[in-house]
Design a protein that fits this description.
Elements (H helix, E strand, L loop, with lengths): L1 H11 L21 E16 L5 E3 L5 E14 L4 E16 L2 E21 L3 E12 L24 E13 L2 E11 L7 E10 L4 E12 L29 E12 L3 E9 L2 E3 L1 E14 L5 H7 L6 E8 L5 E4 L12 E7 L5 E12 L4 E8 L10 E4 L1
Antiparallel strand pairs: 1-2, 1-3, 1-14, 3-4, 4-5, 5-6, 6-7, 7-8, 8-9, 9-10, 10-11, 11-12, 11-13, 12-14, 15-16, 15-20, 16-19, 17-18, 17-20, 18-19
Length: about 400
């Protein structure tokens, strides 16, 4: 299987650009850009892993599943700040020897702030701060109390705080994403570290990916599983909630489909191992809509009056990657100077087509090597070249 994936990568891989990933991970939205996302996540258990890491499969009478539906809205506050608000709705269902159990309702609201610390052409690093508050409250029972048959917990209730780092790195057309968060979970659970690593590459509009995420407990649970002092919750047959120093490892695979301003994502994975949680399988689907906001290209176009040198394209090479302009040493053009190439018209249109660097200079001419194309427009003689 790995050989097949590698062969596909070698034969069809193209360079991934940061814009394809919108505001995923350490990528941020452009200033004044919006993003709206709907995500549906479904998990079903096959059994319980206890606090000692021992797995017990469900008997035929037991089952448990959790279905989360999230709505989130993000806004680019600036080039380095992004704010997101999220609302989550949850449904849980279970069965045991006494019958069926179910609960549903608003699960939580969450605020997230991302701050871009470092960014280059091939890498980016951002800080991630989040606060989540559940919208329900569970009934807590003493260790010696009997839980009513009609009570079923919607999850762990309370406040959650997390702070972490997000990193992406491009290498030979592939992308690597990493994240690490310190979490103070709700329901007085142990503090923990959450980690994620993901590898992805691009095949036209398709972006397959593979990765792993997990939780490592810092072991601060006060009761340490002592049933004589530990309060109980109506978790049914599941061990996902009211956990004792929970840990888990979850590998996953998935696919992004990019349509410029819309991204569709599907993924599936499994709980490979863990402590004080459920073993099972999960799948998720999301659709995300974007607006452009203030793009780098827009900023260039808006600031074209600040250029100190303006000339015209005289000739274009056969491949279109070099061009000659009518400005040179006499107008203070120097090697290494940056120029932007525009297509203009009589009606005031200014379409930024490409940008490049001066590699050769004469008295009244210069040669520019094109470094980036913004639009699939053929550069011709007469286009405007603006530099500073």
């Amino acid at each position: 299987m790995l050989r097949i994936v590698f062969l596909i990568f070698v034969l069809f891989n193209k360079s991934i650009v940061a814009s394809i990933y919108k505001n995923e991970g350490a990528n941020l939205l452009n200033p004044k850009a919006y993003s709206f996302q709907y995500q549906s996540h479904y998990f079903f258990s096959t059994g319980v892993i206890n606090k000692d890491g021992v797995y017990t499969a469900f008997p035929d009478t037991d089952s448990f599943n959790e279905w989360n539906n999230d709505l989130s809205l993000s806004y680019g506050l600036s080039k380095t700040l992004e704010l997101t608000g999220k609302f989550a709705f949850r449904m849980v269902n279970g069965t045991n020897s006494t019958g069926s159990l179910s609960a549903s309702g608003p699960e939580s609201i969450e605020a997230q702030l991302k701050y871009l610390v470092h960014k280059t052409k091939n890498e980016g690093l951002a800080l991630d701060l989040r606060f989540r508050q559940t919208l329900f409250t569970n009934h807590v029972y003493a260790a010696n109390e009997t839980i009513p048959q009609n009570d079923f917990a919607l999850g762990d209730d309370g406040s959650e705080y997390r702070v972490g780092a997000l990193l992406y790195y491009f290498l030979k057309g592939s992308r690597f994403d990493f994240s690490l968060h310190y979490i103070s979970p709700p329901n007085n659970l142990s503090t923990e570290l959450e980690y994620m690593g993901k590898f992805s590459f691009q095949i036209s509009k398709l972006i397959p990916f593979i990765g792993v995420k997990g939780i490592y407990s810092l072991g601060t649970d006060d009761s340490n599983g002592n049933q004589d002092i530990r309060p109980k919750m109506a978790t049914g047959p599941s061990g996902m909630y009211n956990s004792v120093n929970r840990q888990m490892i979850k590998p996953f695979v998935g696919l992004d489909i990019d349509y410029k301003k819309i991204t569709l994502t599907g993924l599936a994975g499994t709980t490979l191992s863990g402590v004080s949680t459920d073993k099972g399988h999960f799948m998720a689907f999301s659709v995300q809509f974007f607006t452009d906001g203030v793009t780098p290209e827009f900023e260039k176009i808006e600031s074209f009056k600040e250029y100190t040198i303006e000339g015209s394209v005289l000739k274009v090479s056969a491949r279109g990657n070099h061009l000659k302009i009518d400005q040179g040493l006499s107008t203070d053009v120097e090697k290494g100077m940056k120029f932007d190439i525009y297509q203009t018209d009589y009606f005031g249109g200014n379409d930024l087509v490409a940008s490049g660097e001066v590699i050769e200079v004469g008295a009244d001419w210069s040669v520019i090597k094109i470094e980036k194309k913004y639009k699939e427009i053929e550069i011709k003689a007469g286009f405007q070249a603006r530099g500073n």
